[in-house]
What we know:
By secondary structure, this protein is an alpha/beta fold. The chain has one domain (about 5-260): Rossmann fold. The chain has helices at about 45-50, 75-80, 95-100, 115-130, 145-160, 175-190, 205-210, 225-230, 235-240, and strands spanning about 5-15, 20-30, 35-40, 60-65, 70, 80-85, 165, 195-200, 210-215, 220-225, 240-250, 255-260. The chain has a six-stranded mixed beta sheet with strand order 6-7-8-3-9-10, with helices on both faces. The chain has a four-stranded antiparallel beta sheet with strand order 2-1-4-5, covered by helices on one side. Strands 11-12 form a two-stranded antiparallel sheet. The longest helix is centred in the C-terminal third of the chain and has 18 residues, at about 175-190. The radius of gyration is 19 Å and the shape is globular.
Amino acid sequence: MIVQSCITASNLSAGYNGTPVFHNIDIDIPKEKITTLIGSNGSGKSTILKTMSRLIVPTQGAVYLEGSSIHTMPTNLVARKLALLPQSAQTPSGITVEELVEYGRFPYRNRITGISPKDREIIKWALSSTNMTELADREMDQLSGGQRQRGWIAMALAQKTGILFLDEPTTYLDISHQLEILQLLRKLNEEQGVTIVMVLHDLNHAIMFSDYLIAIKDGKKYSSGLPEDVITAQTILEVFHVKAEVIRHPVLNVPVCLPYDVG
């Protein structure tokens, strides 16, 4: 499955305030693919994502970005290679969409001249790529949940990185806006080659929009691979403690999980 990895976790462990959350994780993220971490609440998915994106310092092991330890790289250099959209990102009051997207150019900003013509072109591109151009002058807090999420993704795109991390990007959105965001991410991946790593709660969405799945159970990697290989009735039972039938989607021809009882 993996031809080339762009970011790798080796023997990685981390937690909070001395309490371990995940242990001895080895993960290879394939370049220019969509990888999704799945698992039950509290399994360690978001903590793994934060550690791999350098928000949390590991207690053991290392994360390698293009062959270099990410936790020893200069912050500005990491910000030019990897963008992170955290769960339920807080929008500053009164800020417009375009002003938010400008923050994505911070790693490249000249302290004297500020926003350059090149920065403006990239901001314009990020807004267009996320279908937010017409909303550029609107305040973020006046937008729908789906529109706000597209604004945050535009900001991440403005960083012009090859890797985008997202922690539960569809949380609190209705089904229409969930699909809108996931289709946008797939479009960015296919048309612009952005490597996407995300955490999703909806298992069927993870299957539909991912090239590669990593199942986490109790802070350890349970399995990883193509959705067809990872999603089995046994995996669903052991990872989520749910009994389910796994069938084929009649339109997309991918696995579909149909839970029917608690395991």
